[in-house]
Design goal:
Strand order of the largest sheet: 1-2-5
Structural class: alpha+beta
Number of strands: 5
Radius of gyration: 30 Å
Largest sheet: 3 strands, antiparallel
Length: 205
């Protein structure tokens, strides 16, 4: 038996080994074939068990990564900026040589409950080109001709359709930053404008 899979066998076959003889390792089956020449079922079983274990490890690591990302966001976007505001500094250097500074960006995302009002404001103020609109209609089988006729015109009431209009957050954010830089007044609350502050850590040279 090879040492390559020893940890896997110990973790996944303890219970089985208590009830039956030890299972051969993957290496023992590398050149083994059944009478009809197909790949050994024992080899297939070992690989399937190995995949299950690795798949479980990957899922655990992904959960751990998401948890660590959340901790990083909490520290970078809330805890440190709030403490720096309390102390009254915008950047500082630690004794170990780390330089901490705050990076502030203006972002915008229209609140769902204010979507219709916000889109109307954009249209009335000459910014309708920011709006991305998607109108979709559902047709059943055998309705190809109806779909073709409806390509150019929607007939009210004949079909149920979805009319989705919105402005992508990145597009809206760029628009807001441009207008604020020009000193133009815009409805900040209506457009969901907010400051996103996060700290940047520079390692010592």
């Amino acid at each position: 038996m090879t040492d390559h899979y020893s940890d896997l066998r110990e973790a996944d076959y303890d219970r089985r080994r208590q009830e039956e003889a030890p299972a051969p390792s993957y290496a023992d089956y590398m050149d083994t074939e059944t009478v009809d020449g197909s790949v050994s079922l024992a080899q297939l079983q070992i690989l399937a068990e190995r995949q299950a274990v690795i798949q479980s490890r990957v899922e655990d690591l992904e959960k751990q990564l998401e948890s660590e990302k959340k901790l990083l966001r909490d520290i970078s976007e809330q805890e440190i900026p709030e403490l720096m505001d309390t102390v009254g500094v915008t950047d500082f250097k630690t004794r170990s040589g780390l330089r901490i500074s705050i990076d502030e960006k203006i972002r915008a995302a229209i609140p769902k409950k204010k979507l219709h009002e916000a889109l109307r404001w954009l249209e009335l103020n000459g910014h309708g080109s920011l709006i991305k609109r998607k109108v979709s209609v559902a047709f059943g089988k055998g309705e190809e001709s109806e779909a073709e006729r409806l390509k150019s015109t929607l007939i009210d009431g004949e079909y149920v359709f979805d009319d989705n209009a919105n402005v992508h957050p990145s597009t809206l954010s760029a628009f807001v930053r441009e207008k604020l830089a020009e000193g133009e007044e815009i409805p900040l609350d209506l457009l969901g404008v907010f400051r996103q502050r996060s700290t940047k850590v520079e390692l010592p040279q």
